[in-house]
């Protein structure tokens, strides 16, 4: 609800800018043409993820992970690293934050282990692992659309920094929480699958969706098709689950408000000062300057408006990649640096798990610079 209120205020400010002539109508039309398919993808993927969770796919996956770990916490944690990375890469960081968080917290309770190492791994990787594909993050979708890159071309550009951005946070969790991760546990018996037709339909939809998201089709098309299939099946098997709340209305209002507000700020020239911070050039030091500026901006004002504000100063594919490193992998210090972090915390609170924001910020101040610097150097080395 707070997100919706902030979004409504930003939208109102954007409309005032339109009414006063600060934000021209043709600029609004161009913004709508660019953002509508992306927002459609976000809605469709949220519906797919929510219905897959209702079908029991994520719970079954968590139970399978517990059995595969063989009673060793370190192996269970490594499997969570793999799952969080895959979920973020193929289903987006918000899906990981919203749906995987309760899975890993329940998993920790299921095997009687402390939940914090698993929860921290989830939120950090939700942000840092969101570099590889356009679908991984809304900022990536905006960048790929502007650069007209095929998903595989985008992945080739981002492969080296994406790998570094996964490894560095994982290693730090392992070092900081090594005592908890050295424990052993006895897994319980898995729960029975409630509605097998729903479960296997959801599994099939997800299995078909993942390759389609990297096929080169506009991502909103396969996502919408997957959502439609699941909605139809649930309408037949479990109609009560279908409710307006499946769509992320608060998120939509928030994002629309951000888009309008940042476009108005750009028309006023308010974002020009960021150009001085971002610099120019594509050498390692110049790229580090850009990633540092974008990471600071993301932690100050949220990663989406930071990307929109700095986008004009990252015209080439290489500088755009550096910008994404900063606003995605660097957005792990302040609670508001990414929407995924706020959604993650809401889920923790709902499940009775407490985490100190001061502790979170302190750890983020350690992890973010190492991750951003390492990923940037990986990008520079891969670029030759």
Automatic annotation (TrEMBL):
Organismal lineage: Bacteria, Bacillati, Actinomycetota, Actinomycetes, Micrococcales
Membrane topology type: Multi-pass membrane protein
Superkingdom, natural source: Bacteria
Subcellular locations according to the entry: Cell membrane
Keyword Membrane in annotation: yes
GO molecular function, one term: arsenite transmembrane transporter activity
Pfam families: CitMHS
PANTHER family: TRANSPORTER ARSB-RELATED
Organism whose genome encodes this protein: Agromyces mediolanus
Domain called Citrate transporter-like: residue spans: 7-323
UniProt keywords, alphabetically: Arsenical resistance, Cell membrane, Membrane, Transmembrane, Transmembrane helix, Transport
BP terms from Gene Ontology: response to arsenic-containing substance
Signal peptide bounds: none
Transmembrane segments: 38-62, 74-93, 154-176, 197-214, 220-237, 249-266, 321-345, 357-383
InterPro entries named in the record: Arsenical_pump_ArsB, Cit_transptr-like_dom
Recorded GO CC terms: plasma membrane
Name used for this protein in its record: Arsenic transporter
Record family assignment: Belongs to the CitM (TC 2.A.11) transporter family. Belongs to the ArsB family.
């Amino acid at each position: 609800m707070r997100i919706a209120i902030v979004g409504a205020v930003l939208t109102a400010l954007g409309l005032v800018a339109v009414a006063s002539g600060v934000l021209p109508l043709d600029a609004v039309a161009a913004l709508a043409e660019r953002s509508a398919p992306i927002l459609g993808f976000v809605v469709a993927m949220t519906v797919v993820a929510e219905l897959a969770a209702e079908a029991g796919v994520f719970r079954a996956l968590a139970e399978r992970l517990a059995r595969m770990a063989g009673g060793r916490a370190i192996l269970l944690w490594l499997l969570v690293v793999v799952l969080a990375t895959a979920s973020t890469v193929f289903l987006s960081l918000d899906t990981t934050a919203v749906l995987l968080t309760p899975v890993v917290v329940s998993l920790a309770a299921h095997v009687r282990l402390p939940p914090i190492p698993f929860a921290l791994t989830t939120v950090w990787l939700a942000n840092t692992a969101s570099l590889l594909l356009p679908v991984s993050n809304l900022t990536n979708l905006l960048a790929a659309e502007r650069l007209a890159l095929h998903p595989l071309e985008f992945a080739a550009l981002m492969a080296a920094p994406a790998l570094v951005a996964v490894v560095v946070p994982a290693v730090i969790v392992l070092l900081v929480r090594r005592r908890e991760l050295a424990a052993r546990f006895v897994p319980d018996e898995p729960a029975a699958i409630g509605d097998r037709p729903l479960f296997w339909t959801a599994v099939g939809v997800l299995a078909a969706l993942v390759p389609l998201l990297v096929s080169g089709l506009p991502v909103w098309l396969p996502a919408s098709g997957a959502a439609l299939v699941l909605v139809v099946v649930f309408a037949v098997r479990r109609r009560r689950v279908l409710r307006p709340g499946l769509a992320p209305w608060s998120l939509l209002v928030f994002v629309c408000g951000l888009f309008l507000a940042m476009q108005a700020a750009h028309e006023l020239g308010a974002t020009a000062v960021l150009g001085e911070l971002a610099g120019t050039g594509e050498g390692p030091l110049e790229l580090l300057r850009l990633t540092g500026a974008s990471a600071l901006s993301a932690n100050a004002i949220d990663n989406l408006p930071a990307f929109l504000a700095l986008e004009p100063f990252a015209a080439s594919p290489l500088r755009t990649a550096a910008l994404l490193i900063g606003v995605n992998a660097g957005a792990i210090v302040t609670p508001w640096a990414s929407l995924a972090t706020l959604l993650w915390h809401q889920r923790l609170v709902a499940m009775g798990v407490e985490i100190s924001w001061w502790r979170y910020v302190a750890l983020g101040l350690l992890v973010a610079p190492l991750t951003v610097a390492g990923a940037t150097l990986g990008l520079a080395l891969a670029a030759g």
